Amino acid sequence: MSDEELLALFENPETRSNAFNHLVRKYQQKVYWLIRKMVVDHDDANDLTQEVFIKTWKALDKFRGDSKLYTWLYRVASNEAINFLNKKKRRFFIPLHDVENELSEKLESDPELSGDAIQLKLQKALLKLPEKQRLVFNLKYYEELPYDEIAEITGTSVGALKASYHWATKKIEDYLNDTD
What we know:
This protein is mainly alpha-helical. It is built from nine helices and no strands. The protein has one domain (3-178): Rna Polymerase Sigma Factor, Chain: A (Orthogonal Bundle). Helix content is 77%, strand content 0%. The longest helix is centred in the N-terminal third of the chain and has 24 residues, at 16-39. The chain is globular.
């Protein structure tokens, strides 16, 4: 079912719940993995994914269609992930490198990555990036989104995104070369 069809069904009160269920099934995994790459922990990613869809349910009738539905969802998801990480730092007065260490420890105990040393090393390198750079890298590298769609999601210019992605790849490359 296309996004346009989902939105049309959502507008009708009789088919609203069914349309939303289709929307969740269509995007739940993508939203989960976008968040998971940012917050690392499965339980946190699950909770935040639910929050994203609760917010989506409440706001979908106000969706104007200025962007694609999935870019709007990704924007909600990326904002939730970044806000979660910022709250975590503020709530516990944790310096940035302590949050990185905590997430790094979670990575090492993650069964999804067990036995994959290269993937683990890349994920640790990503944790060294500022949240916004990590988000841009994840959207470009893993989601393979074009810069104009990432610009819609992040509210950043294409030029700034290209620079951010360049610096992110440089930092990752440096980290990987330093830890060999």
